[in-house]
Write a structure and sequence with these properties.
It comes from Kocuria flava. By secondary structure, this protein is an alpha/beta fold. The protein has helices at 2-19, 46-53, 71-83, 94-109, 134-142, 154-157, 193-211, 220-272, 279-285; strands at residues 22-24, 35-39, 58-63, 87-89, 113-116, 128-129, 146-152, 174-177, 215-216.
Length: 287
Amino acid sequence: MVYMFLRSYVVRPLVALAFRPEVRGLEHVPTEGPAILASNHLSVSDSVFMPVAVPRQVFFLAKADYFNGPGAKGRVVAAFMRAINQIPMDRSGGRASARSLSAGGRKLQEGQLLGIYPEGTRSPDGRLYKGKIGVARLALESGAPVVPIAMVGTDKVQPIGSRLPLPRRGTRVTTIFGEPLDFSRYRGRQGEHAVLREVTDEIMRAIQALSGQVYVDVYAAEHKRRLAEQKRQEAKQAAAEMLGTAKDKARSAAHTAAQSARHAADSLTHRDSPAVPGEDAARTTEP
């Protein structure tokens, strides 16, 4: 109830007025019954632009952080996420992730639309990354069709680090829904990892065909860890270079100070040394 009210009377009118987004292929989303909406993930605002385009409610697997935030703000966000029936997704792997997927599976059994980002996290650079097999497991266990979706332009209106999406001149957000994918030929084989990998890869190829993104056969989270480690190493190297430069400057300053001290000492020594007898007289008698 809260979801549909906000979508119809608050979010959708604001989005339409500010961004005038384009929607293609909406006829591929079933008007009833379960379906998995599998989308690329460029921006936080993907979870705004895609659902407002769909007349039915979309239940998203949302990262658990939204439900566990600290302080008053965290409680407000958690209450809002629960009010719109979003499902906390534990991305730590193992049994915790399996429980989250099971919660999504129950929504499919109830005949609902379930939104999921197979990449597991936002793309750090606009490319399409390797999908995680959870989406395939949901598809095979539920028998629900998978609708591939391409979000285009959301990373421009809300780049990583931006708090809110903002209209950008020359950028139009587009949501593209592809033809549903049927994986009934694999039914009952959700326990086979090779099958799950093949189904996931087929879904990612369908998303790429819609989005036109460059595909990277690496998990986005893994790539982000590599980038973070690279930045740490670069920062460490920069710090070492700064420290080395500072030491060189300190040594140079110390050397300069030592030279100045020696010169001053030599000057004092020369000034205070006794004159040689007869030297002044010799100077005065010289022709």
